[in-house]
Amino acid sequence: MPLEELAAELSAGALVTDRDVITTYSKDWALFSHVGRAAALVRAASVEDVQATLRFATAHRIPVVPQGARTGLSGAANAVDGCLLLTVARMNRILEVNTVEQTCTVQPGVINQDLKEALKQHGLAYPPDPGSVAISSIGGNVATNAGGLCCVKYGVTRDYVRNLTVVLADGQITRVGRPTQKGVAGLELSQLFIGSEGTLGVIVEITLELIPALPDPITAIALFPEAADAASTVCDFMATGARPSMLEYLDGPSMDMINDYGDFGLPTGMGAMLLVQSNGDGSLEAATQEMGAFSRVADACNAAEVVFSEDPADSELLVAARRAVGPAGEKFANAHGGGELIDDVCIPRARMREFFTRLDELRAAYPQVIISNAGHAGDGNMHPCVFFDERDETTTALAQEAFDAIMALGLELGGTITGEHGVGYLKKEWLARELDPVTRAMHLKIKDALDPLGILNPGKMLGAL
Amino acid sequence: MPLEELAAELSAGALVTDRDVITTYSKDWALFSHVGRAAALVRAASVEDVQATLRFATAHRIPVVPQGARTGLSGAANAVDGCLLLTVARMNRILEVNTVEQTCTVQPGVINQDLKEALKQHGLAYPPDPGSVAISSIGGNVATNAGGLCCVKYGVTRDYVRNLTVVLADGQITRVGRPTQKGVAGLELSQLFIGSEGTLGVIVEITLELIPALPDPITAIALFPEAADAASTVCDFMATGARPSMLEYLDGPSMDMINDYGDFGLPTGMGAMLLVQSNGDGSLEAATQEMGAFSRVADACNAAEVVFSEDPADSELLVAARRAVGPAGEKFANAHGGGELIDDVCIPRARMREFFTRLDELRAAYPQVIISNAGHAGDGNMHPCVFFDERDETTTALAQEAFDAIMALGLELGGTITGEHGVGYLKKEWLARELDPVTRAMHLKIKDALDPLGILNPGKMLGAL
């Protein structure tokens, strides 16, 4: 591979061949995902760098793995053997905030939280808030269609993309999507790139639609001796026509881990907890009414207690506790043999009660591992975690079995194998199980149409179809 | 063409060869769009009828023109020579309303307004409200990504589609989209079919996401001696972070036509009017505040008068007046030589002021025609109408020139040739002008991947790329 040819086309210092640096950039946060040996790393400083890299890759038929902040959980950003890693993390400028159009235009490397902060002074908001909000980039969020806690009311990344500038496999550049708030001129190709995990092109510029700053919410927690009753509460509450701005679930084991991780003061000895917020779209009265409805439903569903707070400090602490489930799980894993597999099934709300029961059956079937469960209950998006001793091969294999059984359960209950974490390496065989043969064939035809040499992130999302 | 073969595969009576009926079904509402001579009409009563028709068409390489309620304005549903017209209008059942999931599942022939009515008893709403709301079908709305008056706050059809069942060109059937509220398993292929105007497949079932019933709005009108000041009002108002639930524009000529059509009592002698609604998401206080902000902005932008009403009857009358612009234009056209071309450009809000000025220049350049303008000002989606004497060839040619000049202007101002009416026959050459060569090529590759024989609605949206 004549890397000197590529170096000559790139910004100074963009091509990295230092093996240690390449190793650092060779993986994201996924476990159990193959990490290949990359040939080199391109730290793109410009759109031209991205184009030059893809022209070179096409000319020499070299695989390219596009990368954002590498905070993904599915291995989509992991190196494949002989590839060029292409990170756009340095392209991190906010190019425009347009208050008349209520949009902003950003480079892909902008960190989600940085964008949120920058929008505050304009009274505008970009809602999507994945768990990685403080460290993941907008480009990666778009490439994976990131979700978060706000989705039950405010939708996912896809819902905020007006248009994208993308570089295709051969280095050609184009803008897809609408120039304006409405637009139906041709096929909506931007939506094809959103969530495509680097398999169709590299996103180099993004225009997002914004909404007015979100009003402060009222927060409530409801505690349940039985987890299944939390599921019933979610269903009955949503069936009142509710629009909570957050509706999160923690089971007892998750609450214990969080308490062990930090001074969050969550109640102990409970089966489950719901954390719900309503902002009433700015109306305290509407928020209070909605929380009243929640309280009545929770009581009717055997809640042990329902507690409210309008104090933003209380709200923040509770949300911080919910967000701590990630690092708390890490701490728990480290104390229990190191292994942790985070799942991400999404099921219809009405099937959550059954999901909880069946998860208990899995716990009984796999006593060698520990399974906790937390998630975005308002969406039916569940993140069961399987903890295991990774030093033990048998236990590790059982953990993977349990992880797979959770996905099988998700499919059985009419859901999906991934609500927001993506497919990547981790779930590519499961994607083939979820999609029917006709849709699988469509995926491959479209991939072939846009990346005929198959150089973009090969062997990942579409690798088992 | 062995139609008897096809008849044997279809529901009784589904195949129609009566020439008069075929002629009736051979066109939509577009003007200046070629109408071909269809070979036959299939009035599908079931998914199986659709599949059988497409299998037959593939076997014999016969073009198929999928049709909904044929209320489109771009000729997308017009017959092409030798085609099978395939209407799904008879497949018009609401299959499920799921209050826990806040979704509904419908057949494509369900009329938009009928769905809205059916959802009321569940306290749920499906917002998209194209001008054709009372007569257009959900399938057609999805196939064209229909918009309407609500879009400034509530988005377009695309924003409400959870998943679609589609029959492909070869008769194979599949479901695309997510089973659940969140889902990132594979490429989001449903979004490719939305707005594809029958060029990629036939939509036979649709699951829509719903929201709680919309609260009653406060309505205001602002009157402006100068149209350009209405444009400035829209920009300055939106820049306050406003979320009006409706923000419509009528110019003086449009207001005159509406008054001439019915007893709506719109003021006369004005340059323009804005019709704005705010529902404050259910909070009267929030709505009142937002309308206060609108009033202050309009006053600062030289409004002659701003009038409010909380009375639903007043609101309905004003919205009815706005909705009457279509039939009012028809009446006006009939009295002025019969010709009317309705345009549909969408531009950034900030360019609307310039658009109005440039439209005046077009009026001066084409004195043989009459140009009025109305539209969804909150979106920048403008519907200028060109009225002309269709009995006169020269005038007709000039009218088409003026129509084209409006699209050129839309593109020049950073907008699109179609905000919501679609491409069809009418604008296919203009689509080629709007899209860059790379995006044009992507369209053709995707079309070829999904419809390799090119039998689905040939010569329409993608016909000039």
Verbal overview:
Chains A, B: Its cofactor is FAD. The two termini of chain A are 30 Å apart. Chain A is globular, with a radius of gyration of 22 Å. The first copy, chain A, has helices at residues 3-9, 19-24, 47-60, 112-120, 138-144, 151-154, 190-193, 227-238, 252-261, 284-300, 312-323, 325-335, 352-365, 393-412, 428-434, 437-450, and strands at residues 15-16, 40-43, 64-67, 84-87, 94-98, 103-106, 124-125, 161-167, 173-177, 202-209, 211-212, 218-224, 246-251, 272-278, 305-309, 338-342, 345-346, 370-376, 381-389. In chain A, helix 8 (227-238) runs antiparallel to helix 13. With 465 residues, the first copy, chain A, is α+β, with helices and mostly antiparallel strands. In chain A, the strands form 4 sheets. In chain A, strands 12, 13, 14, 15, 16, 17, 18 and 19 form an 8-stranded antiparallel beta sheet that branches. In chain A, strands 5-6-10-8-9 form a 5-stranded antiparallel beta sheet. A 4-stranded mixed beta sheet of chain A has the order 1-2-4-3. Chains A and B meet through strand 9, strand 11 and helix 16 of A and strand 9, strand 11 and helix 16 of B.
Compile the SSE list and pairings:
2 copies of one chain form a homodimer.
Chain A: H1 3-9, E1 15-16, H2 19-24, E2 40-43, H3 47-60, E3 64-67, E4 84-87, E5 94-98, E6 103-106, H4 112-120, E7 124-125, H5 138-144, H6 151-154, E8 161-167, E9 173-177, H7 190-193, E10 202-209, E11 211-212, E12 218-224, H8 227-238, E13 246-251, H9 252-261, E14 272-278, H10 284-300, E15 305-309, H11 312-323, H12 325-335, E16 338-342, E17 345-346, H13 352-365, E18 370-376, E19 381-389, H14 393-412, H15 428-434, H16 437-450
Parallel strand pairs in A: 2-4, 3-4
Antiparallel strand pairs in A: 1-2, 5-6, 6-10, 7-11, 8-9, 8-10, 12-14, 12-15, 13-14, 13-18, 16-19, 17-19, 18-19
